[in-house]
Write a structure and sequence with these properties.
- It is a single chain.
- The protein has 9 helices and 2 strands; from the N terminus they run ααβααααβααα.
- It is mainly alpha-helical and about 210 residues long.
- The chain has 3 domains: about 5-60, no CATH class; about 65-135, no CATH class; about 145-205.
- The chain has a two-stranded parallel sheet with strand order 1-2.
- Helix 3 packs antiparallel against helix 5, helix 4 crosses helix 5 (about 110-120) and helix 7 crosses helix 8 (about 170-195).
Length: about 210
């Protein structure tokens, strides 16, 4: 349905002001006009909601993942010290951190940030990005993720040496996928043994092929 032109609307306004009666056709045009406006209004509302969603996703995609200790140190500065507020945190915090690198600060959180950057100076850029775009606490890697990270280069090197066919990467991950269930159960068994619950393992060993 189409909206009426401004001229048509003005004609109807004049008729109304002059006390003239509207015909059935006139009323149908008006209802169609109102319906078209409602549809356009809903379309604009939907577009705004879509843009807000896209903006939120864009903001979240720029959030920098920081170690928990570092994120808490920045939070502490923002909350506890009025010098480090949300209007100029980048310059204020970095200036304090730079000073702390040469002379330890009396502020524990400043020292925490300085120590983290000192371990790898390229981390300073990470801190800047976090202060500008916002940050979130990174999830610590699971035991399985750590094992996969440690095993992958070792297995790839061994397989490439013996196969030499360029298939070491997918083969490595396939082997690790088969090793992880067994490793998971070994870790669980060691934990149970540690707490004197080794007797509870026998049933699992009898029924689960992945048990050691």
């Amino acid at each position: 349905m189409l909206k009426m032109s401004e001229l048509q609307l003005q004609n109807y306004r004049n008729m109304y002001n002059e006390g003239k009666l509207f015909s059935t056709i006139d009323l149908a045009f008006m209802l169609a006009h109102i319906d078209a406006i409602e549809q356009e209004k809903q379309r604009l509302i939907d577009n705004v909601a879509k843009l807000q969603g896209e903006l939120q996703l864009e903001r979240e995609s720029k959030l920098v993942k920081l170690p928990k200790e570092l994120a808490e140190a920045i939070d502490g500065l923002m909350e506890d010290d009025e010098r480090f507020n949300y209007t100029t945190p980048v310059f204020d915090i970095l200036a304090a951190v730079d000073q702390s690198m040469s002379r330890e600060s009396c502020h524990r959180d400043i020292n925490t940030i300085a120590k983290w950057i000192n371990e790898d100076y390229t981390r300073k850029d990470i801190v800047v990005q976090a202060l500008v775009n916002g940050y979130t606490i990174e999830e610590p890697p699971s035991v399985e993720d750590k094992l996969r990270t440690e095993w992958t280069p070792i297995l790839e090197e061994i397989l490439e040496e013996y196969t030499g066919n360029g298939e070491s990467v997918p083969l490595t991950q396939s082997i690790i996928d088969k090793m992880l269930p067994l490793t998971r159960n070994i870790i669980k068994a060691m934990e149970l043994e540690q707490y004197g619950m080794g007797g509870a393992l026998q049933g699992n060993r009898d029924t689960d092929p992945h048990w050691p």
